[in-house]
Amino acid sequence: MVSLSWHAPATLAAMLFIIGLIGLLARRSLIFVLMSIEIMLNAAGLLFITAGMRWGNPQGQIMFIFVINLAGAELALGLILLLRLRNRLTTLDGDAANRLRDVQA
Amino acid sequence: MNHLLWLVPASPLMGATILGLCGTMLPARAAAIIGTASVGIAAFIAILIGLHWYAAAPPSHILIQHLWTWLTLPGLTVDISLYLDPVALLMMLVITIIGTLIHLFSTAYMAGEAGYSRYFAYLNLFVAAMLLLILASDLLVLFVGWEGVGVCSYLLVGFWFQDAANGYAARKSFIVTRIADIAMLAGILLLAVKLGTLSIQPMLARATELWPHGGAWPTLAAGLLLIGGLGKSAQFPFQTWLPDAMAGPTPVSALIHAATMVTAGVYLVVRLHVLYLLAPDVLLAISIGAGITILLAALAALVQSDIKRVLAYSTISQIGYMFLALGVGAWSAGMFHFLTHAVFKALLFLSAGAIAMRLDHEQDIFKMGGLRTSLPLAFWSFLIGAASLAAVPIISAGSFSKEMILGAVWFAPGIGPGLWAAGLLGALITATYSFRVVFLVFFGPAHTPVTGRSGAPIAVPLVLLAAGSLLIGWLETPSFLGGDRLVMTLLHPVLGSPAPRSALAILVEAAGYIVPLLGIAIAYTLYRNGHWQRVAAAEPGALRRLLRTGFGFDALYEALLVRPFMALVRALRHDPVDHVVTLISAATLQLHHTLRRSQIGQIRRYAAWLMAGSIATIALLVFA
Amino acid sequence: MILAWLLIIPLLGGLLAWPADRITPMLPRAISLATLLLELGLILPLVHGSGAAILSAPSPITSGRWLATFDASWIPTLGISIRLDLDGLSWLLIVLTTIIGLFAVIVSWREIDHSTGFFHANLLWSLAGSIGVFLALDLFLFFFFWEVMLVPMYFIIAIWGHEHRRRAAIKFFLFTQGSGLLMLLSILALAFLHQRQTGVLTFDYVTLLASQPTGRLGTLIMLGFFIAFLVKLPSFPVHIWLPDTHTEAPTAGSVILASILLKTAGYGLMRFAVPLFTAAAHHIAPIAMALGTISIFYGAILAYGQSDLKKLVAYSSISHMGFVLIGIYSFNALAWQGAVILMIAHGVSTGALFITVGSIQHRLHTRDLTRMGGLWTDLPRLSSFGTFFVVASMGLPGLGNFVGEFLILRGVYAVSPTIAILAAIGLIPAALYSLIAIQRAFHGEANAKRGTHDFGTRETAMMLALGAAVIWLGIDPQPVLKIAAPSIAVLLPITHAAAIPATRRGT
Question: Residue B306: helix, strand or coil by DSSP?
Fold first, then answer.
């Protein structure tokens, strides 16, 4: 059994997270925003597994299953919202959906 | 018979209840019958009890009827029971009999008024409350009657509620007496706490047992209760409400503001005279205050132009005489004057009412005149009443009682002669102002045409009261007229015998008889022959204006009490505390305006902030 | 079990009434009426028979001799149980609640014409909450009912109120809820303190009575209760929610608020704030008395200045409740009896006044005194009843309020003559605002023809019943005093016994 160092997966997780974050901040299209969030979630999941491996504890893997479920549910909801938004605003630009802001601001 | 005592207050109360609940559905005639009959029944029972008493007085001259226990708690038990002693008997007879006559008079006087049944409901309720006041065996129950008559007085003074001025007068009468009543309430609380009971007889017994003569507690208690009495009896310095209270219908003035309610203060002191004997300082204050009241009110009466205001001031002044008697310990003399005053003052008011009815409710004496021939009945009854008020010797009831008071005052130690002089001067002025009215109203040229007719309900009370004014004094005569002592004998078991009067100097006695005649002579010279009539009707000077306003007490109280209160009300009206809370909510809003700027609605901006926050937090956790 | 039914019946009645208006708007009214009559039939007999025997033989509170009890576990791990106990004091206030509730239903018969179902559901739930407050002897349960009572009231004001109802409802909610949270903190602190002392976590009132926290901590915990009840009473300076709330609430809301909800505060002070913290309560007594006295004057003076008739009555309530406050903090049995009587009499007379004002508003579409005047000409019956109840609330001897005020003054006088006399002087402004209200509403010249109709049979009967109650309380208060006496006898000795060593420690 090859014992893997935990450094590499952790670095990968951090990189994935930063990529997702940049995508989230930089892209306007909500499709990309959703995808970025997924990437970030996966980064977190990867970190869980890595941590579980590092401490020899199965709870990290259990958490990852949770995260997958969560990501699936979140994605479903996100896509529904996205569709509704597209129907209403005829665009996928996230900045156009700023109706929640305070009216006078 | 005696077991029917409860019916005496209950009968008018029932009348009031019936009239109050379904008075509007009854025809006026039925309302009049119920109103008068309920008091009539009370009078009938009262007379029966009185006769029974005369035949065979109950043991120790006290009749107690226990009705029910109001409240009983550790440290305080109050029974609702009726306590009839000779003093209360006298009061009860006067209230019910005069009350019946005035109800009878009212049936005609108020005929055709809106709220006819309401009037009788109030009047019945008043009689019930007044009877409760005098029959109460417990000070707290007495206070119930005391406030009850106050409220009835308020309702009746403001009976013609459409006119705001009547409402003002009614409120004034109630508030002024209420201020005094608070002192009385404080006195009651003091007695309850210090003596442990409010039942009058045990309370008085305990007071004499526990408290030394002239001690601080009896003085304080007696003084506080006295303030209540002075307020109710419109004595100095509370006299201001009574002249205004004349806004009510005239029979109300006769019953409440002359014969009965305003003498409640006198009754209170007599009822508690054992307590007052422990407080010589208070007695001294009573007599001095009475002297002031007599002169103030008599002088004010001298210049009034409204016939009812003259009578109101005369009432204040006459009750002053009663208090003068009480101040020197002549309890029964005070009660005797109460009796005669109730009769002749009711007579005067009813006569004034009978006159006003026929003159289209004109009350200005300068607009009357020459009524001697057109209204003979009113003339004779008013004349008899005025003679009694002026204390014309021998023929009038007033002279007997006033003479008795002056005689007792003369012998009071210390300031007796001074008070006597004040009383005598008061008698002079009284005779002058009462005959001033007689001359102005009944003699000289007529100014206002007489209309309408007066029926039996007007005539019967006048005749009966006039007879009473002439004759009732003979119940109690000075030694040279036979020395009847019927009233004294009746009151003796409670109030003891007055000091023997044999030593009365002949000059003192004579002065009391001559002075009223002198006063009438002055009135005759001034007002009978046109000259002063014109002067009196002319623009008044400063002195006369001062007198006419009753020495400006109204203005004084206005400045001292009413204005500051109104200023306070205006300052607080919008609830300053509420502003503090408004301030808090305004601050919250301000904060909201400041913070809302950051909410621009762009998800990416939020996410960036989120990130920055997270990084900062982690950095803090890692490096700190 | 009967106590549980006392709560279940109005809760169920509310559930039934809610959807019933889909059938006909009349049905919820009938359901509420029937519910409350049933409730009354259940509660009234409890003081007879064995109840009478218990009442006549007072015993220490810890021995648990109650008119009726109910105990069921709720959250045992936290020591929370559904403990309901009924003694004379609770009985009186529950009877008042039920009867006033009946009148509130009758008053709303015509006034409430939309969503009657939800209205009556809220009404019944609010009543159930107050009944729970009067019954609960588990502090957590007490807090629960305290909230249950408020939320439906919020809806009643916010939905069926007058012009500025939203604002008033929010103000009401924030004040009562905020103070309620303070109380919750205190309840938790008290329970945890007790746990630290004895190792047992419980919210049981009788157990916690033994805890008696003293010192600074005791005062702090007590303040939570005290402030909550002070807000509810209400007393100066936390009274400000009351005038707005009363003004905007529908008639039934005002009636319940004035006649019942305010009484929960007096009850809370007597049952919880004083006995649980006797030493601290004694420490705070001078402040409480001062606040009470200020309330008496402040309420009266502001009442005089109002031109809105409902606000006038609301401020007068503040003045009356000032008497209750000084009475309770005199720690004198007579004053406590007086406070009970005054609470009941005030409930009846002020309830009647709010009904009168509501009727005036219904007829004239205004509560503004400057636009009234001369009502007696058009509406003699309404005006005479109005005058009667104004005079009653002014404290006319012979009527219920006077008995309460006198007993309070008598009790307070024994402790502090100064406060008693000051409070008595407060009766003068009471006369001022009462008479000015009569003058401006009923007396004076009749304005232009209004063509309004006087009280009908329903309203007259209601007023007669309330009037009879006020008179009865005034001339024969003894039964009420007798029923309340055992409760007061057990609540006050605790106070004295615990206070004496505490004050010694303090000096």
Answer: strand
Q: For position C125, what pLDDT does the model report? A: 93
User: For residue range C232-275, what is the model confidence (pLDDT) as tens digits?
Assistant: 988 988 888 999 899 899 999 999 999 999 999 999 999 998 88
**Number of C-alpha atoms within 13 angstroms, CB side, residue B496?**
11
CA–CA distance, B72 with B93 (Å, rounded to integer):
32
Specify the 3-state DSSP secondary structure of B83: strand
Residue C244 and residue C313 in one domain: no
Q: With CA atoms as reference, report the closest residue to B90 among B393, B482, B476, B481.
A: B476
Question: Which is nearest to B255 in space by CA: B22, B427, B4, B12?
Answer: B12
Q: How far is B119 from chain C (nearest CA, A)?
A: 13
How many Cβ atoms sit within 10 Å of the Cβ of residue A97? 18
Q: How many domains, chain B?
A: 2
B414 token code pair: 């210390």
Q: Out of B76, B148, B162, whose CB is closest to C374?
A: B162
Residues sharing a CB contact under 8 Å with residue C447, sequence separation 6 or more, in sequence order: C371, C372, C373, C374
ipTM of the complex: 0.90
Best A18, A27, A100, A104 member to test B by mutation, with max B CBs in 10 Å, is A100
Residue type, B395: I
Q: Which residue has the higher pLDDT, C147 or C211?
A: C147
DSSP line for B184-247: HHHHHHHHHHHHS--BHHHHHHHHHHHSPTT-HHHHHHHHHHHHHHHHHTT-TTSTTHHHHGGG
The reported pLDDT for the residue numbered B91 is 92
Tens digits of residue pLDDT in B506-548: 777 788 888 888 888 888 888 776 555 566 556 667 787 888 8
Tell me the pLDDT band of B203, cut-offs 50, 70 and 90. Answer: very high
Check whether residue C234 and residue C300 sit in a common domain.
no
Looking at residue C12, the DSSP 8-state letter turns out to be H
Residue B372 CA to residue B443 CA, distance in Å, equals 6
Q: Which residues of A touch B592 (CB under 8 A)?
A: none
- Give the pLDDT of residue C500: 43
- Answer yes or no: do C245 and C289 share one domain: no
Name residues whose C-beta falls within 8 Å of residue C311's C-beta, 6 or more positions apart in sequence: C243, C246, C247, C303, C367
User: Is the same domain home to B581 and B618?
Assistant: yes
CB burial of residue C163 (10 Å; 0-12, 13-18, 19+): exposed
On chain C, the residues whose CB falls within 8 A of the CB of B171 are 435-436, 439
Q: Rounded to two decimals, what is the model's pTM? A: 0.87
Q: C68: which DSSP letter?
A: E
Confidence class for position C59, pLDDT limits 50, 70, 90: low
The count of domains in chain A is 1
Domain ranges, residue B551: 541-573
Q: Residue C196 belongs to what domain range?
A: 1-272
The number of residues making up chain B comes to: 624
Orientation angle between helical segments C478-506 and C88-111, nearest 10 degrees = 120
Task: Please determine, for residue C498, whether its predicted confidence score (pLDDT) is greater than 60.
Answer: no
In chain A, which residue's Cα lies nearest the Cα of B608? A25
Contact B355, B378 (CB under 8 A): yes
Taking a C-beta distance cutoff of 8 angstroms, is the pair C232, C262 a contact?
Answer: yes
Residue with tokens 């409890």: C46
C449-478 pLDDT, tens per residue? 566 778 888 889 999 999 999 999 998 998
**CB-CB under 8 Å, B569 with C301:** yes
Kindly report which listed range (B32-36, B264-268, B393-397, C412-416) carries the lowest average pLDDT score.
B393-397
List CB contacts (< 8 A) between A102 and chain B.
596, 599, 601
Q: Do C424 and B569 touch (CB under 8 A)?
A: no
Determine, for residues B71 and C478 on separate chains, whether the beta-carbon distance falls below 8 Å.
Answer: yes
